[in-house]
Specification:
Helix 1 packs across helix 6. The protein is built from seven helices and five strands, in the order E-H-E-H-E-H-E-H-H-E-H-H. The chain has a single domain, classed as Rossmann fold (3-Layer(aba) Sandwich). The chain is of the alpha/beta class. The protein is globular. Strand 1, helix 1 (22-33) and strand 2 form a beta-alpha-beta unit. The chain has a five-stranded parallel sheet with strand order 3-2-1-4-5, with helices on both faces.
């Protein structure tokens, strides 16, 4: 259901966490379809695959998003993840338990920044593209986590305590398969060629096709019956579907 604009003709603002990946661009497009003015928030958090920040910039330009902030934090100070530390990114293998690509507390940190930004904007809605169906098993992508953070947000902020409207964390993709997400993006007219998903891309941004993120992405496109428009280092990667 689309929202009505306010008396000034302005749409209500929503903060959208935009990583530059397939899921976050879909969440952004859904926020816009639902009647919100997206205010994108991207992080340089010490990640090795910093090409995603370039992807976020491409998305913002192509989709004519008027508000985009890039915030520098350094989760690499703590390490503990293959995405922020000198730990090899696993290739072509299933992880037992939570994989080494999990970045400790990343979504909690990101959502906390989004919460602060939303308060300053006078926004009551935050969109995040987390998914708990075709995902890597990260604990901060589950419905229970999103619900708990929303409860905390309404206890910990002026907007939550004094506001007439409660803060809402939207996770519109959380119960969708990767294929369903891609089909939804296709319906919305999203150009997934703007995005990146790879945990170990080369200097030019070409995806490895072998990490967990690439395998999930390739599987999703295959099941959706669509071609993945991004570049892979090996042409055979497109057939290396889990």
């Amino acid at each position: 259901m689309c929202l009505q604009s306010d008396m000034t003709g302005e749409k209500p603002k929503a903060v959208v966490l935009l990583s530059g990946g397939l899921d976050s661009i879909t969440a952004l497009a859904l926020a816009r379809e639902r009647g919100y003015e997206p205010c994108a928030l991207t992080f340089r958090y010490g990640q090795r695959h910093a090409v995603e920040v370039k992807a976020a910039k491409r998305i913002v330009e192509a989709m004519e998003v008027r508000h985009h902030k890039i915030v520098d934090i350094d989760l690499g100070t703590f390490g503990g993840s293959a995405l922020t530390d000198d730990i090899p990114v696993p290739k072509n293998q299933e992880s037992a338990g939570i994989p080494v690509t999990y970045v400790p507390a990343r979504n909690t940190v990101f959502l906390s920044f989004a919460l602060a930004y939303a308060e300053v904007l006078g926004a009551y809605n935050i969109f995040v593209g987390v998914n708990a169906i075709d995902y890597s098993g990260y604990p901060d992508c589950r419905p229970e986590y999103i619900a708990a953070f929303e409860t905390m947000a309404n206890l910990a902020t002026r907007a939550g305590v004094e506001g007439k409207t409660k803060l809402k964390i939207h996770a519109p993709l959380i119960k969708m398969s990767k294929a369903d997400i891609i089909r939804e993006g296709n319906r919305l007219g999203i150009d997934y060629g703007l995005t990146t998903s790879c945990y170990d891309p080369d200097a030019d941004g070409a995806a490895c096709g072998e990490c967990d993120a690439c395998r999930l992405r390739l599987k999703g496109f295959s099941q959706a019956g669509l071609d993945d428009p991004i570049t892979y280092r090996k042409a055979s990667a497109r057939r290396a579907v889990a």
